Amino acid sequence: MSSSIQEMMQDIGMRARAASRAMARASSEQKNQALLHIAKVVRQQAAEIQKINQVDVERAKGNGQDPAFVDRLTMTPKTIETMALGLEQIVSLDDPIGKISALQKQASGIELGQMRVPLGVIGIIYESRPNVTIDAAALCLKSGNAVILRGGSEAIDSNTLLAQIIQEGLAAAGLPKDAVQVVTTTDRSAVGEMITMTQYIDVIVPRGGKSLIARLMAEARVPMIKHLDGICHTYIDADADIAMAVKVCDNAKTQRYAPCNAMETLLVNQDIAQKVLPTLCKIYQDKGVELRVDVLTRKILEANGFQKLVDAKEEDWQTEYLAPILSIKTVANIDEAMNHIEQYGSKHTDAIITNNKAQADRFLREVDSASVMVNASTRFADGFEYGLGAEIGISNDKLHARGPVGLDGLTSLKYVVMGHGEIRT
Is 0.85 surpassed by the pTM of this model? Predict the structure, then answer.
C-alpha cells in the first residue's frame, strides 16, 4: 500500500472520529433538518444526478459488466424519488438516541436503566448501487453516527455528486461535513486500510458481491454487520391458495432479478405441484426465466408440454443467481422443504405459501432466517418496505443486528445509573 493512500485513509478516519462526537450530541431537529435539505436537493438535482450516473453506466457497459450489475448501478427517476422518500421517512421516525429505558430502583437505592447511543464511526464498503450513498448516510446521520463511505470504482462519479449533496445538507443544519465522507480514490488498497482502522472505525458494513464480503471476512479487523449470500426460498405448501401462490412466486422472482431478496429456489409440495407448476412455469418461461429442475419437477412439466428445461445440479441449490434463472424442486412435505432450506439457505429470507395456520406457525418457528414470511413475496425483505426508511444493509448474523438494519441496528446500549449519594457496603 502506498504511503499516500494510508495517510489519506488515516486522515479521513481521524476527521470521522472527531465528527462522531458532534453527531452524538446533535439534536433531533438538526438531524431532521439536514435530512430534509438533502431530500429537497436530491429532487432539485434529479436530472443532474441521472446525467452523472449515465457516465458511470456507460463506463460499466464499456467494461463488459453484466446486465444485473448495470441494473444495480442505474439510477432512474423512480430510484431518485425513492431515495428522497426514504429520507423523509427517516425524518418521520423517532430518534432513538438518548432514550433511557424505564429506570428501575435497586435494593441499594440506585436507579438503573439503559440509554441508546450511537455506535460511533461506521465504515460502509459497497459496490455498484449509488443509492446506498444516500440511504446509508441518512441512517447513520439520524442515528448520530459518522460514516465513511467507500463505493465501487464503477459508481465513483455518482457517489461523489451524492456526497456533495449530503455534505451541503449537513452544513445547512450546522453539523460537521466530516460526519459523512466518501473515499474518492478507486485504489483497492484503500479498502484494505479501512477494514483494519480499529482506532477510528467501530463497525464495517459490506454491501456487495460474494467475493468482496469473503475478502473482508478473511482480512477485516474491524467488526462487521454483513450477509454473504441471498439464497431465498419460497415453499408452496399443499394447503396453498393456487392463485395466491402464482402471484406471489411470480413477483418474488421476476419483479427484479438483481436484488439479494429475489427468490432463487422454489420448493413445491408434491400434492399441489400438478396444479401450480404448469401455470407458474409458463409465466416464468414467457418472461425468459431459465428453469433448472429436479427429476420430479421435470416429469410434471414435460407431461404438460414444457421444453427447454435444465437439470438442476448440486451447485444450483447453493447459488445466488441474481439473474433470470430459477431452481425448482418438488418436495414430499414441509419437513423436506425446511430441511432443504436448512442445508442450502443463506439465512436471509424464506417464505411459505399456505392457508394452514399450523404449517405456517411451524415454518415461522423452525426456519432460521433473518426474515421469515407467510403468504408474501421475499422481495419485501427491505428496510424501506419494513418501514425503516431505508436500510444500511441486511444482516444474517445473529449478534447485534439481524435482517434489514435500520436505526436501532446502528445503535448500542449503555447502562446508566442515577444515584442519590448511595455507597456500596
Answer: no
